[in-house]
């Protein structure tokens, strides 16, 4: 049987679409499995109020963490809360959602819970902003901390591009202010702007402490 050029293209497109669909379904299954394992893991730590935030800053992980915080607040309105984080970052909006939630429960935010967030291995991008919500910010001695400017995508007409860029710049400015405010004077606005403009900044535990992005290095 001989295929015409158009039939061959259609068959090829159908095959590629099938592959992409299968890859997407596999990725969704893996994500669902990871979240099930995380929920099971965290369920064992409800008595000590410990949540393990492992993975991307996305709606699923943010929701899981927020649900734990709400549960602990309901059963023990003045308990200490602990979050251990290992994350390469993710969505700014999902992250700011959780940042506000964490802050609301913390003593510094007017809540009744001492909130400790500990970096394990890596906190990068939006994950480092989450760390700033804590009353006590801790980093493991061999862990890393990475900050950079907001990254995003846009498309559309010139006016739409300008509107989106104005929004991005406003969010970028606010995120920078959060780092500076929590640095306790160790990092001025000018220093921070110079630090993160147009580059990814990788900091070890000692450097993150030196800039005031964490309060202490675990074990030090």
From TrEMBL:
Q: Please provide, alphabetically and separated by semicolons, the GO molecular function terms listed in this UniProt record.
A: ATP-dependent peptidase activity; ATPase binding; serine-type endopeptidase activity
User: What Pfam families does the annotation carry?
Assistant: CLP_protease (PF00574)
Tell me the Gene Ontology biological-process terms attached to this UniProt entry: protein quality control for misfolded or incompletely synthesized proteins
Q: Which InterPro entries match?
A: ClpP, ClpP/crotonase-like_dom_sf, ClpP/TepA
Gene3D superfamilies from the UniProt entry: 2-enoyl-CoA Hydratase, Chain A, domain 1
Keywords of this protein's UniProt record, alphabetized?
Cytoplasm, Hydrolase, Protease, Serine protease
Q: Which GO terms describe its cellular component?
A: endopeptidase Clp complex
Q: Which family does it belong to?
A: Belongs to the peptidase S14 family.
Q: Please state what the protein is called.
A: ATP-dependent Clp protease proteolytic subunit
Source organism lineage?
Answer: Bacteria, Bacillati, Actinomycetota, Actinomycetes, Mycobacteriales
